[in-house]
């Protein structure tokens, strides 16, 4: 049964969104819709135009017999700015302040809408980067890593704080946890990371940068390559000492835990790191 | 600038997929595409038809001035069966067997493709259920909960094994961990769950059912309602004793940890629980 263009476009958009950054062949679509490759090519031109128009990513088409299309979802600068503003607004709420200057963010990290924005923002930053795997540390980094993984279509691995039978053989490193100045241990299942892999590190929150430094050592132990570090929120480092530079943050949070409990969230360095570079500044 | 139907269909599909199970108004689409409501209504008819044709969900249209459309993604029976078969095949690999009869699944739980299938399967089961929040326990339940949350567009909450400053006030319960027969403690941030909420419990693996029993007590402590339990994989209970019934599993795994290391994965009770009910059997 031949499928009409309008119906093809709907299913094709859904299919491409569920297989981002992968080559989907003209042949596959041709068979799925019982349509000529020339019609499929025209369809793909429409999909490409629509993603461009609304600043939601790009569709590259590869011509030839083994050709096809690759959809790379990302935000235009305007959409990215809007997403950052929404995140800042959500965090700017004094009731999020916890004793000791900590910030309650667990609700946001469980909201699909927020996770889609975070995922698409971070995927936007690494559109031109060859990433093999996304790494994070349990627990609250996981939703961030997964949201990025879904848009980049790459696996994510979870570094754990203690040994677990179900991980099989592991590699571990020690690191200094900045917030408590204590030596801690983190470990990763041997099977999850290959040597030479390009690793993107993400996390929910960075204060001193201790856990990120730990992940950097772990990447070295696996003979893998660190290609980027991005966190959802960046806080005040303890003693103004930060162990990690070249980390990108979507938002920055300052807290005043005195008699006047105040939280001040603002945009992190994401926009300047991502879009001023792209402009070649 | 008026937008052509073909372009509208692509963006509309993307938008609806990123806002599943939510009412998107005709007015919103009309303004976004500078098009008459009658044209938008026709577009929605096409989207509806396409999702139906490929067994990917349903689009309900609500007529009237305050009307709009709600996209509910789910698998047709045929697509669900294919997804289950793929999962079974991925797990059926003797190299996944770990000492003590444990099964290595961490790689699958970090693969976007696998997580999309798991998420859409579980969302399919609860298409007609009023779910307010999805609950899981750290660590490996998190990717499962998030994948379901993305398709259901509902928040997920993470039950933790120990206290964390960044969770604010918590409620805790004790439970018996089946696999080690030890009393353990789990806790959930006070703010994340409201009394009366309808809670769907998901997890990566169930053996004895100890952690799920713990989550059930926690739900009681919050005066919330348990509306369903689904796990990715179900294993042999220790001493053939299982604490939880009416749990749905996507796959079932049996292991033989003798001299002959063998793993045997097969479909769980998902298909019979979900589709035979729907047929009214």
Automatic annotation (TrEMBL), chains A, B:
One of its GO terms (molecular function) is DNA binding. GO terms for biological process: negative regulation of DNA-templated transcription; negative regulation of purine nucleobase metabolic process. It comes from the Bacteria. Pfam families: Pribosyltran, PuR_N. Keywords: DNA-binding, Transcription, Transcription regulation. Residues 112-235 form the Phosphoribosyltransferase domain. The keyword Amino-acid biosynthesis does not apply. Residues 4-73 form the Bacterial purine repressor N-terminal domain. Homodimer. Belongs to the purine/pyrimidine phosphoribosyltransferase family. PurR subfamily. This is Pur operon repressor. It comes from Limosilactobacillus rudii. The lineage of its organism: Bacteria, Bacillati, Bacillota, Bacilli, Lactobacillales.
């Amino acid at each position: 049964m031949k499928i009409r263009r309008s119906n093809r476009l709907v299913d094709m958009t859904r299919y491409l969104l569920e297989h981002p950054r992968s080559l989907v062949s003209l042949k596959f679509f041709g068979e799925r819709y019982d349509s000529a490759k020339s019609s499929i090519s025209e369809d793909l031109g429409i999909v490409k135009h629509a993603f461009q128009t609304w600043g939601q990513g790009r569709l590259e088409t590869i011509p030839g017999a083994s050709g096809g299309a690759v959809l790379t979802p990302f935000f235009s600068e305007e959409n990215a700015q809007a997403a950052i503003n929404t995140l800042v607004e959500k965090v700017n709420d004094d009731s999020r302040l916890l004793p000791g200057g900590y910030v309650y963010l667990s609700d946001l990290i469980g909201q699909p809408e927020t996770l889609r924005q975070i995922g698409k923002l971070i995927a936007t930053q690494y559109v031109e980067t060859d990433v093999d795997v996304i790494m994070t540390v349990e627990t609250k980094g996981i939703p961030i890593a997964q949201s990025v993984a879904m848009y980049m279509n790459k696996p994510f691995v979870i570094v754990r704080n203690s040994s677990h039978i179900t991980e099989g053989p592991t590699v571990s490193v020690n690191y200094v946890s900045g917030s408590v100045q204590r030596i801690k241990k983190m470990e990763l299942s041997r099977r999850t990371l290959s040597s030479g892999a390009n690793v993107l590190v993400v996390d929910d929150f960075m204060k001193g940068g201790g856990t990120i430094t730990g992940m950097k050592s772990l990447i070295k132990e696996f003979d893998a390559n660190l290609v980027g570090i991005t966190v959802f929120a960046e806080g005040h480092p303890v003693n103004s000492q930060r162990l990690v530079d070249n980390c990108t943050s979507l938002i920055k949070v300052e807290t005043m835990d005195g008699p006047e409990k105040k939280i001040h969230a603002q945009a992190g360095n994401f926009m300047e790191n991502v879009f001023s570079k792209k402009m070649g500044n």
